[in-house]
Amino acid sequence: MVRKFLSLCIAGLMSVSVLITPIMAQSTPEATSTEVVADGAQSATGHQALKNRFIEGDPLFMAPILICLILGLAIVIERIIYLNLATTNTTKLLANVEQALKAGGPNAAKEVCRNTKGPVAGIFYQGLDRSSEGVDMVEKSVVAYGGLEVSRLERGLSWVGLFIALAPMLGFMGTVIGMIDAFDRIAVANNISPAIVAGGIKIALLTTVFGLIVAIILQVFYNYLVSKIDSITGQMEEASISLVDMLVKENVTKH
Predict the structure, then answer these.
(1) Which of 80, 98, 100, 250 sits 20 to 30 Å CA-CA off 112?
(2) One-character DSSP codes across 178-242
(3) How many CB atoms lie within 10 A of CB 129?
(4) How far is CA 5 from the centre of its chain?
């Protein structure tokens, strides 16, 4: 379900980027077209003004920045859905497992865990499955499976971090190349005129701005995902300790 949703998000966002790219290519800034866009931006809404500024930038650098945003948001959406589905009411789960242990033993408790979604239920199942082998084996099983679940929770975060670093780098590269182009125009014209260098400097500043905007947006979501993962990991650790104590209390494990 989540994978299908991610595929649809990527397909939709990439189709939007394909539609926008020709518009950007057709709107390469010239002396007359820049004046028309500037006049229209004065009466446009904030969204339209942002779109116009994006089009005014160099497509060579704006397109990769847009791709970083699209892919980064697609991964973020998938991770948010996955982490929300992985969130479990540990207090309720512990109560159900304890009740099942008293009523039907480890097999009944494992059935409760099997019917509950989330990494905490999976850890409980692994611990209960090894309960007949002693407390030490239960603890080792819980720790090993817990590490596996944490790696699943963190999947995709490295790519979001990559896009956070890559977007401003592309923006800065556009800035440097735009400044080089401005100085080349000065050298060719042998005259320092604002009209000559304005285009190159404008592209340079726009690529930097949009690169930083993309990085800021993805950084906010990245921090949210990290805090969500830390919260789930803390719940897993607390629940694991409670499970071991419960097994010892109910005399389920061998000593």
Answers:
(1) 80
(2) HHHHHHHHHHHHTS--HHHHHHHHHHHHHHHHHHHHHHHHHHHHHHHHHHHHHHHHHHHHHHHHH
(3) 17
(4) 15
d(CA 136, CA 134): 6
pLDDT of residue 4: 47
First to last CA, the chain: 43
| Whole-angstrom distance, CA of residue 139 vs CA of residue 237 | 11
**pLDDT over threshold 70, residue 22:** no
Work out the average pLDDT over 148-176.
Answer: 90
pLDDT digits (tens, 9 = 90+) for 179-191: 787 777 777 777 7
Place of tokens 């931006």: 41
Cα gap 179→78, rounded to integer Å: 39
Q: Which two tokens stand for residue 186?
A: 């000065």
| Strand, helix or coil for residue 252 | coil
In angstroms, the CA 137 to CA 249 distance is 16
Residue 145 has pLDDT above 90, yes or no: no
Sign of CA dihedral 42, 45, 48, 50: positive
